[in-house]
Design a protein that fits this description.
heterodimer, A: alpha+beta, six-stranded antiparallel beta barrel, three-stranded mixed beta sheet, 4 helices, 13 strands, B: mainly beta, STM4215-like, six-stranded mixed beta sheet, elongated
Chain lengths: 281, 273
């Protein structure tokens, strides 16, 4: 919630005129809708936070919420671009989006109606409207199930950029740019970089996103042996999963584990125990 | 092109050392646990030799230009960074390592004792989470005290097994966590190793000495007194014998056979055996 400006001159109210603020907010929101792209917002669920190291390797992304964002860097991605590092090709793309604050509040409350011919369709008997009388018409009575509880978009959340099938991670959200036009903030300027993926669980229900994520996860447990009833086969002693024959190369195109292992078989005498080759799964 | 008077030769030794080094780390994993302690994820760690042709990496790792993410972590890579001669391991250069020839029983292969070189390797571990890095380190460091020794077959035609120690020299962490929220945070562990390698010259094929003739003479007159002829002895059943009369032809005896030694002594003063 924005604070209230105390105007210096009572004859010129530049900052606390609500109607002008609403007009500006609607114009900005409309401009974002007109010139922006519909993307999917994936909120991060902190699952098992590591207090010591300040991280959450088991983060989950269980929702994909539609929202329109204006691509500020519309001439192309920023950042270092495609970069050949010690670890293969890294796509160090960055991009800056502009999000309407009004839209953010909307997706955290109710799902927008489907737009047809530029007009949001109103459900029969639905009279609920967003926030004030100038707002967009919203669907009511249908729990959207979205798991967005934050009052603002958060660093660490993801954005799925459909045209390039890219997952971007929000690195920073500038909340004061533009700087209080008419005394109020109307947008978030969101700086993202392409997701440095560390096999976090991505199961949003959106098939396109989930398939993309499943193609790059390195979690071998997704290859666990299943019993006839589709439950996971467990080791009776350890309770651990039995992993099917797994090749790192399945989901990592840069991996050479299999080649190196095969070649080493004719070079290293494995009658001496190689501690790295006998890991129990 | 002959080198140092020898015909072209190449054992692929450096390639073998690189493979051997990489194979020590090709089965690393990272486990993530729920708050209850139950295992939630077991991540395989991809590893590759770091320096590569950029065009090949590009077309092999992103052939459709549809990669969804920047990079998959954790990830490991390694490189041969350099090498230095190690004079402390220098050995008598005229010693040889030999092996019999499977194609010709009367010939064997030989290579002079190699020269000692230290190969400097670096292993890079790129993780997103600090805990992933600590897990990887704890899978590696306990095995280096400070060396781990691989027993390697360096020249397959010779077949000698050589112990090759790999010494862990240092572990360095790079963590660019101080930034303006927008810059990338890169958490990379670099482990520096020295591999005590040996590089060999050309392997040559030589005839096998199967007959040793020792001529004995009278000390004062220099007249021949007796002749000792030593040959390998192997009977037709493949058992060792010390009687040359019971042995098959020496040309049929391999250096790897369990032969005995036949010593035939000719008394040259009387002509008796």
């Amino acid at each position: 919630m924005d604070g209230t400006f105390i105007v210096a001159n009572k004859y010129f109210n530049q900052y606390n005129y609500v109607r002008e603020q609403r007009l500006t907010e609607d114009l900005i929101t409309e401009a974002v809708e007109i010139h922006g792209l519909e993307m999917k917002y994936l909120p991060r669920t902190i699952w098992n936070e590591d207090i010591l190291f300040g991280e959450d390797p088991l983060s989950k992304f269980n929702d994909a919420v539609s929202i329109t964002l204006y691509v500020k860097s519309n001439t192309g991605f920023e950042g270092q671009g495609d970069f050949l590092s010690k670890f293969g090709v890294e796509l160090r793309d960055q991009v800056v989006f502009v999000m309407s604050r009004k839209r953010w509040l909307q997706i955290t409350t109710e799902k927008l109606l489907v737009e047809v011919d530029g007009i949001y369709q109103q459900e029969s008997g639905n009279t609920k409207q967003y926030a004030n009388s100038e707002g967009f018409l919203l669907e009511t009575g249908t729990a959207n199930g979205y798991n967005i509880t934050s009052s603002r978009p958060n660093e660490g959340d993801l954005l799925y950029f459909g045209p390039g099938q890219d997952l971007f991670e929000i690195k920073f959200i500038e909340h004061e740019n533009p700087f209080y036009p008419h005394g109020k903030k109307f947008t978030y300027v969101i700086t993202c970089e392409k997701f440095r993926y560390s096999s976090e669980s991505i199961s949003t229900g959106n098939t396109e996103i989930d398939v993309q994520a499943s193609a790059v996860t390195m979690d071998m447990r997704l290859f666990s042996l299943l019993l006839e009833d589709n439950t996971t086969m467990l080791d009776e002693e350890t309770g651990d999963h039995f992993i099917q024959e797994y090749r790192v190369e399945i989901n990592s195109r840069s991996a050479n584990n299999e080649y190196i292992g095969l070649q080493a078989g004719s070079i290293i005498d494995f009658s001496d125990t190689n501690p790295f080759s006998e890991l129990e799964q | 092109m002959p080198s140092f008077g020898n015909a072209y030769f190449y054992h692929g030794l450096l390639r073998r050392y690189v493979i051997a080094f990489g194979s020590m780390f090709d089965n690393l994993t990272v486990t993530r646990r729920e708050s209850t302690g139950a295992v939630a994820q077991t991540l395989a760690i991809p590893i590759a030799y770091a320096p590569k042709e950029s065009w090949l990496v590009r077309i092999k790792t992103d052939p459709q230009l549809l990669r969804t993410v920047q990079v998959q972590l954790p990830s490991a890579s390694f490189e041969l960074a350099g090498m230095t001669y190690d004079g402390t391991r220098k050995m008598q250069p005229l010693n040889k390592e030999t092996a019999s020839s499977s194609s010709d029983l009367n010939k064997g292969k030989m290579v002079y004792r190699g020269v000692p070189w230290n190969l400097n390797f670096s292993l890079f571990l790129y993780v997103r989470n600090a805990d992933d890095g600590t897990q990887l380190l704890e899978q590696i460091l306990p095995f280096f005290g400070p060396e781990w020794t691989n027993t390697m077959t360096l020249i397959p035609t010779i077949g000698t097994l050589i112990d090759v120690p790999v010494i862990l020299n240092s572990v360095h962490q790079e963590d660019t966590y101080e930034n303006n929220f927008i810059d990338r945070r890169a958490l990379v562990w670099t482990l520096n190793f020295t591999m005590k390698a040996i590089l060999y010259g050309p392997a040559t094929t030589k005839g096998i000495i199967k007959t040793a003739r020792t001529q004995l003479r009278d000390y004062e007159t220099s007249a021949k007194t007796s002749l000792l002829v030593t040959t390998p002895g192997l009977n037709a059943n493949g058992a060792a014998t010390t009687h040359s009369n019971n042995s098959i032809s020496t040309s049929l005896i391999s250096a790897d056979d369990p032969y005995g030694y036949c010593v035939d002594i000719t008394d040259q003063t009387s002509g008796e055996i």
